[in-house]
Amino acid sequence: MNKIITIGREFGSGGREFARRLAETLGYEYYDNEIIMEIAKNTALSEEYVRQVVECEPHKLYPITIGNSFSYVDNYAQQQIQSIYYAQSKILKELAEKSNCIMVGRCADYILREYNPYRIFIYASLDSKIKRCVARNNGSEKYSEKEIKKYIEKIDKQRAKYYEHYTDQKWGNKENYDLCINTTNLVIKDVVDVVAKMLK
Amino acid sequence: MNKIITIGREFGSGGREFARRLAETLGYEYYDNEIIMEIAKNTALSEEYVRQVVECEPHKLYPITIGNSFSYVDNYAQQQIQSIYYAQSKILKELAEKSNCIMVGRCADYILREYNPYRIFIYASLDSKIKRCVARNNGSEKYSEKEIKKYIEKIDKQRAKYYEHYTDQKWGNKENYDLCINTTNLVIKDVVDVVAKMLK
After folding, report:
1. Are strands A101-104 and A4-9 parallel, antiparallel or unpaired?
2. Nearest to A181 among B179, B194, B197 (CB)
3. Is residue B149, in this structure, part of any structural domain at all?
4. Of A182, B23, B86, B178, which sits 20 to 30 A from B138 (CA to CA)?
5. Is the confidence metric ipTM above 0.85 for this complex?
6. A126-170, pLDDT tens digit by residue?
């Protein structure tokens, strides 16, 4: 059976960089936005719409193009969301069958539970996440720290709701992961080096 | 500055074995019950009583030998408990100054926060913890699984209360640790091997 690592992460915790670098170091495939594109192909929905579905709160989402009455819209939207979720599950399983890989987000830890993935969750203090976001913007003052804080909280709330909607588990709850890593004040590259040593 | 590792652990998660083996592998000092004995010496209280204080719910504890009125008992008990906590803090700091070390429980992650310890929390599913306790008893049927489950829950509740009483933080909350390791179905020796590689 292939080795599967799933990575959940708080926004600004460096989880995405961690996942990409870890995949490079271990020589594993890395899947993130690529998954969305695959889903788009499989469901004949636009990539933009699929991205909206997988990144937003599913219960708040309405279809882009159609809808006569509210109940009809609701029903149709729910069907689309469900079909995207099932397509996503199917693709994740296909990818898991193909090779060793690292998957970021997308409830992969839950969807692939039969594959016995190694489930990592990356988190950090709010201050550290704000600092990381500021650094990512090359220190430009386009957004205030207050705006960044609000954005981080919004995204994490969305991720939590999406995860909880489909898994019936609490997002970020340590019981759902094998390893939880606090990246507060750490350089992600250094964290990757030690975790790679651990997993090799 | 010496390297300090603090280990919080759920009862039955293998945290104590993990800490002892990790200390052996890394060549660090290891402190657990030894600390209690040191405290006993420093506070001129019996070892048994100190053990009762550091392992039980502090707000429920009454002194063993004296007490005329309830308020007097309460006051005296509180003073004793506080003095043990301060003695414990003092000893932990002295030990942290002496050499690289691993400390189990005792709010060490909080007390030694100025020493920037590497804070690990060890946990596991309830089923896995019950299995580990049964194995520890060499499979003897002295206690039923139901009794063991009740005991695990009781001890963890006590640990949580003790920790929260003194630190004003939630015990086991991943935000208070650098690394949280789920030992469900794992052999502790194997976990130690990978974490030691990571920390070396």
Report:
1. parallel
2. B179
3. yes
4. B23
5. no
6. 999 999 998 887 756 678 888 999 999 999 999 999 899 889 999
